[in-house]
Amino acid sequence: MDKFRIQGGPRLNGKVQVSGAKNAALPCLAATLLTCEPVEIAGTPRVRDIVTMEKVLQALGESCQHRAEVTRVVTGTGEAFWAPYELVRTMRASVLVLGPLVARRRRARVALPGGCAIGARPVDLHLAALERMGAELRVEHGDIVAEAPRGLHGADITFSKVTVTGTENVLMAATLARGRTVLRNCAREPEVGDLAALLVAMGAHISGAGSPTIEVEGVEGLHGASHRVIPDRIEAGTYLIAGALCGDRVTVDRCRPEHLGALLEVLEAAGASCSVGVDSIAVGRPPILRPVTIATTEFPGFATDLQAQLVALMTQAEGVSEVTEAIFENRFQHALELMRLGARIEVTGRTARICGPTSLTGATVMASDLRASAALVLAALVARGETVVDRIYHLDRGYEAMESKLGALGAAIERFNPGPYR
Ligand code: EPZ
Questions:
Q1: Would you say the C-alpha torsion 52, 240, 18, 190 has a positive or negative sign?
Q2: Angle at which helices 164-174 and 190-201 pack, to 10 degrees?
Q3: Which tens digit of pLDDT belongs to each residue from 238-297?
Q4: Best substitution site from 165, 185, 329, 397 to test ligand 1's pocket, by max atoms within 8 Å of Cβ?
Q5: What is the pTM of this model?
Q6: Measured between alpha carbons, how far is 357 from 343 in angstroms, rounded to an integer?
Q7: Which CATH architecture has domain 22-228?
Q8: CB-CB contact of 203 with 223 (8 Å)
Q9: Please, where in the chain does CATH 3.65.10.10 lie?
């Protein structure tokens, strides 16, 4: 099982290029199920979750060919409709094939995604919306079984909670539903807008994507298209936090600053002023890091996917910070591991109080989920001595070549595998 070995201390300098957004590429890949024509998606990151989604598509009769950074997805007979548990359990975002399958193939069998390290993560809102559109749903042997023999019809749907993949799943289904669908209380994350851009390129009639209310006029069919996914704002934010933590000057290149407004405000409040360009942002460690008090919320608020990384940064702030995780019920796994490095963190309910600055010392720590792993890597960069981060397969799910990118900035980081059973 691969691990990272990190020597704390070096200052980071230079440019890091952001990869395509995993959480945009995943729904875009699922959207290829809505047509029998080839769809080309450029800029998908080479990370494990994308490989898993491609395996799910292959199980559904599609083929994914790669040429340079373009993935060309071609649908086969379009008869398959079962997304198997052994794939879905490794990536809950596989549930994104549900809407497209029901809309176009009029049936789907998708393993009910289990919970994960950060919470129960139900999909009840996805299912309730599809039922409103005429799908007959039941759970059978751990699978969601959905049928719409007469196809789906439009509906006026209000999500009781903002759900990113719920919005995406139902948006995709609505493109082929008969008549008009209005979706209210939608997620406004940039990845939703990016998916909508692909769907419109495929011939869908959508307005309001990126706002709380999205309207869709269903069409008979969608055609092929080419699309480039947006840059990964969470990867970009992770490297900006690395720069604020131990950078002389780190420039995050090929990003979309407008997707990072909340983080830039928090970094500013912490004393780490950023230089913002058209598609790049530069930041360095300030003389004094100030503590902050924030709560995660839906876009355009502070992203839950940057919460763990911010907690790592705040271990170095001069004072007490308070970070509240308002999206997921169990997203402070990183706190216990950071405490092994010497951090002083008290978690009460959904709020972590971080007392800084603390002098961190290297240790062996264990990654638990994608973003918690990133927080451990960041903390290791400023911990005295050697840190070994175990189970970095969590990182490989969503960060492309992290050790190469950090190494190019000057970090002392290497990937190693001590062999079986260790
Ligand atoms: C997406 O997950 C992202 N994943 C997550 O990123 C991200 O943390 C999350 O949105 C929040 O921004 C992808 O886009 C593939 P939600 P998603 O549905 O869609 C509750 C990463 O690190 N809820 O917006 O699964 C849910 O429990 C990952 O890249 C229901 O109750 O999140 C949570 O409390 C981690 N019922 C809240 O809503 C539902 O049917 C928001 O979840 C759906 C969600």
A1: positive
A2: 10
A3: 999 999 999 999 999 999 999 999 999 999 999 999 999 999 999 999 999 999 999 999
A4: 165
A5: 0.97
A6: 9
A7: Alpha-beta prism (3.65)
A8: yes
A9: 3-18+231-416, 22-228
